Amino acid sequence: MSLQVSRHDFDEWMVPVYAPANFVPVRASGSTLWDQHDKAYIDFAGGIAVNALGHAHPALQQALTEQAARLWHTGNGYTNEPILRLAKQLIDATFADRVFFCNSGAEANEAALKLARKTAHDRYGAQKSSIVAFNNAFHGRTLFTVSAGGQPAYSKDFAPLPPDIRHAPFNDLEAAARLIDNNTCAVIVEPIQGEGGVLPADPAFLRGLRALCDKHQALLIFDEVQSGVGRTGSLYAYMHYGVTPDVLTTAKALGSGFPIGAMLTREDLAQVMSVGTHGTTYGGNPLAGAVAGQVLALINHPELLAGVAKRHQWIVSALEAINQRLHLFKEVRGLGLLIGAVLNEDYAGKAKQFSLAAAEQGVLVLIAGTNVVRFAPALNISEQEVNTGMARFAVACEHLARGSTT
Fold it and tell me: Among 252, 258, 350, 354, which one carries the catalytic annotation?
């Protein structure tokens, strides 16, 4: 008989680096999930922009179970068929010539930053090591990536941090230009800051970064861990902006729930890395390759990508209707199905309360900092699920506006 567990057990047994919701999900289908008490929730969180095709998609189940019956894991001393097919899919669909597979977005960004440092070291010398990143960015939780992320709250307790990483305000090209020079090896930027508040980059900002990197022989790295794999309505956000990076990182939705990450780059940069310069035990395993290959095949389809804009409008229209009645948000922003409702001054700092109140009503939303309620649902969420979820969210907002949550 299986051990019976509850949310209380988390507080007793787990290292307390998370503060999960007060319920335990046990099953899900599409964009609806159920907890231990069979309460249903509409999922606008998407596993933090991960479950791009919802829960328990039958084609992904089939890909996983078929591969599980063949080959699970061999380690990086061998290659495998699913991961080679996935590599070709990514190469054919993007600017890239080469792919490195890993297990997460943080690992993909770690690989990208190491590639930049090694490229500069080999081609120009050890002095060309500076990395320019942006305030309120989020690139992962490894020591290197948390240092590149421009949120000191995530890094200050782990000093000394990796040196020679400087930060500029996001969307401020002049400030970035003051930091980028001939000793800069890389500029890393999210086309849409996700954790930093669902803030899209200005097109001129990204074009300017591209020009500055070209001028100073620095690599332009796009962190598309959250914005990639159809989230904006383009397969990757760089396609939406028309600005091509030297390196792109992707994860989250690439596996639609199965852990996988990847770094994509050009042939000339890939050749800087030789056998033994970087690696991972689980990265590029057959199970991840099989699932992600099916994910990419389903998402990189004109009809599905076109549906992202339609679903964006459903959610934004519902948020605007709520705001007309309750006056909660000073702005609704984002691209595709990465949407942020920015709380006005009367509700500043209360994003978490909105998330908790929404869960009480049976709908899951995210936060992005303390002032932004974030929506990152499945790209194929149904109109009925959107309508039901937004109606529940409206009730949560009404309760908060009245000063109660139940």
Answer: 252
The residues that bridge with 55 in the sheet, in sequence order, are: 30
Comparing CA positions, the residue from 181, 154, 155 lying closest to residue 168 is 181
Q: What is the DSSP string of 53-110?
A: T-BS-HHHHHHHHHHHTT-----TTS--HHHHHHHHHHHHHSS-SEEEEESSHHHHHH
Task: Please say whether the beta carbons of 348 and 332 come within 8 A.
Answer: no
| Beta bridge mates, 33 | 28, 41
**Residue at 387: amino acid letter:** N
DSSP class of residue 28 equals E
138 is catalytic: yes
Give dist(CA 20, CA 136) in Å, integer.
23
Instruction: Judge whether 144 counts as a catalytic residue.
Output: no
3-state class of 302 per DSSP?
helix
Among 101, 138, 170, 375, the active-site one is 138
What pLDDT digit, counting tens, does each position of 186-243 carry? 999 999 999 999 999 999 999 999 999 999 999 999 999 999 999 999 999 999 999 9
**Which residue in 365, 16, 18, 20 sits closest to 7, CA to CA?**
20
Whether 252 sits among the annotated catalytic residues: the reply is: yes
Q: Which residue in the block uniquely carries the two structure tokens 């959610």?
A: 315
For residues 281 and 36, is the Cβ–Cβ distance under 8 A?
no
pLDDT digits (tens, 9 = 90+) for 72-86: 999 999 999 999 999
**What phi, psi does 364 have (nearest 5°)?**
-100, 125
Q: Which of 35, 100, 205, 223 is catalytic?
A: 223
Q: Residue 335 corresponds to which tokens in the numbers above? A: 């691209």
Task: Please state whether the predicted TM-score (pTM) of the whole model is above 0.90.
Answer: yes
